[in-house]
Amino acid sequence: MQAFFHRFKPSGAPSWRVSFSAVACAAVLALGSSPALAWNLEDVAKLASQRAKTPFKPASLAVPAELAKMEYDDYRDIRFKPESTLWRADKLAYEANFFHVGRHGDSVRVHEITAAGPKRIPYDPARFNFGKNKLSPKSWGDLGYGGVRFFSNLNSPTYKDELIVFSGASYFRALGSGQLYGLSARGLAVDTAGPGPEEFPRFTDYWLEKPAAEGAPLTIYALMDSERMTGAYRFDVKPGEQTVTEVRARIFMRPTDKPVTTLGIAPLTSMFFFGENQPRPGDFRPEVHDSDGLMIATDDGKGGGEWLWRPLQNPASPLVTSFSMQKLKGFGLMQRDRAFRSYEDTEARYEKRPSAWVTPLSDFGAGRVELLQFATPDETHDNVAAYWVPEKMPVAGEPLDLAYQIAWQGKNQQLPPNGWVKQSRRGIGYSKLGADALGQQIQFVVDFAGPALDALPEGAKVEAITTAGSNARVVESLAYPNPATGAWRMTVRVERLKPANAAEPVQPIELRAFLQYNQQTLSETWTNLITN
After folding, report:
1. What is the mean pLDDT of residues 475-496?
2. Are 25 and 107 in contact (CB under 8 A)?
3. What angle do CA 397, 399, 403 make, to 5 degrees?
4. Which of 128-132, 418-422, 500-504 comes out lowest in average pLDDT?
5. β partners of residue 152
6. Is the C or the N end of the chain the one with fewer CB within 10 Å?
7. Which residues, 6 or more positions from 457, have their beta carbon under 8 angstroms from its beta carbon?
8. The domain 5-409 is classified under which CATH number: 2.30.30.40, 3.60.10.10, 2.70.98.10, 2.102.10.10?
9. Pick from 106, 114, 60, 56: nearest CA to 86
10. Cα(526)–Cα(520) distance, integer angstroms
């Protein structure tokens, strides 16, 4: 299990991890001898099915020596020429350009779907301005491209902004209006939590559907390949205040004697450095994160279910937790805190980073949402991942069909229908407890808001229903109005219990709490993991 993920840098190197360069580039070029039949998802699925019946071929494409020795800042000086932008001359709703291949050799083949059929877009050095670099690109041959990015009139009718980017393995990320890049999504996650090394399925080919009528979505097809699986993907991107990416995929497992332990569907990757629940001494900024919590909605099949909120943290060692259920309504890594004063960062503008809410469009069946959190030394590394793990794993020869959407949301984002957590803070203020007691007890102060709380009658006696794992005892659990904000505040104090065997390691405390009035649930369930 890796300690952290490298951050996505859309204006720079398109790679995410050094290990990505080990994924097949030769397999990309192998398609050159086959017709590119990517008219629709079925056509891409035929290619994926064919690949799944053959052994995986690792990369063998050598990066030109000139590129291999380039420093990061040198690579940043390679720019795509605006006049070479795809579809610009046609004055269509969307435009596209390409990343240059970097020193790690992550290369993709790009095709355009036209009225005459799919057409390969070969690498052309004339599309790029190489800046101050002294290079000889005409001698490199057909490198392919390092990734693809798309533009639309997201924020202005006269200027096209970046809308969605595909770069590095199967990573992509999108923007709604007024947003700045933050967290990312992936096509698939394989054995991210171990026990062996993580496998990185990689999009090797893209087919770009030429935009049609105004208002139609942007459509992209992709072919995925890795050691133990292949896949066909269709992305329909609908820009707006919250841009929606509809994903339809067909996954094929290769026959192998090395079974997949964890198949992560609709994976999201983000960064949490510190926040209100885990402040960082010495940093002038109150919070630094792309996401502050994992939200999950379960479906009980009767029109109800439970909403869960797990505040993120930057743990000292890797944490893997999961939430099992019979049916998923949705999950997402969310950036709920939208106030500049919460971050005070005039460059990063974390309050503008999107939330990503995943909604199944097909039946995912029973399974679990898994959350991974790693230690990160700074904000330049992604250290959080969340994804759906099906209870039933697909087998070789049986395709797995998936359909879901990702909504990239800003201020107007998905929230539970009744009430939700506004902030979580850990610590004790003025107290008469002695030093020994303080060392054993942990306190949280959690603020809630929402329509169910706003509708309460004056003087309502709200209860904080709190439970802890067997290794802790709830000492105090109170709910009361916050006179400064008009919302409701919950104070929870728990005591860690000593293990029966002193030699046993101290285990994390699982803590759950929600607000209730007259047996009516008023809020989502706040679920926190106390690791120290």
Report:
1. 94
2. yes
3. 175
4. 500-504
5. 94, 161
6. C
7. none
8. 2.70.98.10
9. 114
10. 16
